Amino acid sequence: MLKKYITPLVLVLLFSCGEEKTDKNLHISGYIKGLKKGTLYIQHIKEGALVALDTIKIDGDSHFTSDLTIKTPEMFYLFLDRGVSNSIDNNLPFFVEPGHLNIESSLEFFTADAKISGSKNQELYDEYKTVVSRYVDRNLELVKQRFDALKAKEETSVIKIEEEQKRIVMQKYLYTTNFAVNHGAYDVAPYVALAEIPDINLKYLDTIEKSLTPKVAHALYGTKLHELIAERKKTEKK
Q1: Where in the numbering of this chain does the DUF4369 domain appear (predicted)?
Q2: Among 102, 118, 134, where does a domain finish?
Q3: What are the φ/ψ torsions at residue 157 (nearest 5 degrees)?
Q4: Is residue 190 part of a domain?
Q5: Whether residues 144 and 232 fall in one domain
Q6: Rounded to whole angstroms, how far apart are CA atoms 85 and 48?
Q7: What pLDDT was estimated at residue 84?
Q8: What is the pTM of this model?
Q9: Residue 172 lies in a domain
Q10: Strand pairing partners for 26?
Q11: Does residue 33 contact residue 111 with C-beta atoms inside 8 Å?
């Protein structure tokens, strides 16, 4: 009778001891179509420099995985060392958060073909980039127009184009501010403020900071935004 109760207990203990315990809270899986040989580096920015968190050798199989521990949602970078090419299309930013994230792309168009799923912050960041790209494209058109006008010595046209460029920049800044304020529950909000509009009028940065939830405000980018605001207030008082 005693044996009947001991056996299941022993099995449970053996099973528990055999389990692999891990504190990894981020699982990344991916597939790079056409990549047969090369090296992938998963990186993040630390003290102003890109630092590798994982190195993945690709040799025949285009699939890859990585398990990491993160303290807070953060922008990571997937760097592709092709080994035989000096292509500038080799560094893919992606927003990580605890859970399972999947990256699919191609060797030919590494950043353009990228599809990233499993991260709400990434989903929102993609939405943000889609809108901002319109302002960027329009500004590039204006740069060409301004060059042509300068070449033709059309001063009136140059002035009008420069005014339009300023208007485009202001539209981008205001959109970024509204985006951040409307998504204060996500770490992408302080990130875009830091990455895209760090020099905007302080009242807008203050508005963004006040819109952040406590969790986001005390995470990586919320803390950095607070530090930026404090530093600017101190500097601009002088």
Answers
A1: 27-125
A2: 118
A3: -65, -40
A4: yes
A5: yes
A6: 26
A7: 63
A8: 0.86
A9: yes
A10: 68, 99
A11: no
DSSP for the chain? Answer: -HHHHHHHHHHHHHHHHHS------EEEEEEEET--EEEEEEEEEETTEEEEEEEEEEES--EEEEEE--SS-EEEEEEEE-SS---S--EEEEEE-SEEEEEEEESTTTTTT-EEES-HHHHHHHHHHHHHHHHHHHHHHHHHHHHHHHHTT-HHHHHHHHHHHHHHHHHHHHHHHHHHHHTTTSTHHHHHHHHH-TTS-HHHHHHHHHHS-HHHHTSHHHHHHHHHHHHHHHHHT-
Q: Answer yes or no: do 66 and 51 share one domain.
A: yes
Divide the 238 residues of the chain into consecutive groups of 10 and give the mean pLDDT of each group.
Answer: 47 44 88 94 94 95 96 96 72 97 95 96 97 95 95 94 96 97 98 97 97 98 98 87
Residues 167, 62 share a domain: no
Distance CA 115, CA 174 (A): 28
pLDDT value of residue 22: 65
- Does 35 fall in a domain? yes
Shared-domain flag, residues 98 and 156: no
Show the domain range for 198. Answer: 122-236
Q: Are 208 and 177 in contact (CB under 8 A)?
A: yes
Give pLDDT, residue 89.
Answer: 77
Q: Is residue 106 part of a domain?
A: yes
